[in-house]
Amino acid sequence: MTSQLFAVCFDASQPLRVARFWADLLGRKMVDDPHDGAVVLPDDDVGFRLRFAATADPKVVQNRMHFDLTSGSAEEQQQTVARALELGARHIDVGQLPEEGHVVLADPEGNEFCVIEAGNNFLAGCGFVGALACDGSQAVGYFWSEALGWPLVWDQDEETAIQSPRGGAKITWGGPPPAPNGGRDRVRYELVADGDHQAEIDRLLSLGATRFDTAHDVAGRVALADPDGTEFRVLTPR
Asked: Which among 19, 205, 209, 236 is least buried, having the fewest CB atoms inside 10 angstroms?
């Protein structure tokens, strides 16, 4: 039994606005979420949804996860940056060095993302969304490899990465320690269980997950935390 990565969920004060930004930037379809907010659908059968849920809490720290968008050429990188800025993104400084080739931007609510330079061999063949880059320990990379049934494609110097056997975006962890989350994680995974829901919750707990504060459970979603304490949710059957 494994879980499937159903969605990456962003808390947002204006979920429709941020969802529209990402739908337009990625060239994907946006639909209303039946529970709350909006969803950007995947563009193929190996992708995952982006869900944007309403919150009244402001963003106060850098997210523990961000997207790395790929480029086929220097011109394509410039076009992606220009398109993102036109849609409402802005340049930000997260400590990147002048000689680094990637461009760091933030969406209309400050969610960080990178537009990677051409020639990045690690992300070759992953698609436009090359990776979901995360703070996290080696142990967390191992945990998510087991949780999702995705093999490790990188494991060196406490940095890990996994990828679906069917391809698509990688999920990477840059090593400890995870950055402060400002009290809770505004970006998190949402999973669906293959098979018995409670049995899958028990399996995730046996792999090293913990029950999150039950006050953070919402309708149809059980809150857990991975071994680094980063929140994720498992959707209950409907």
From this structure: 205
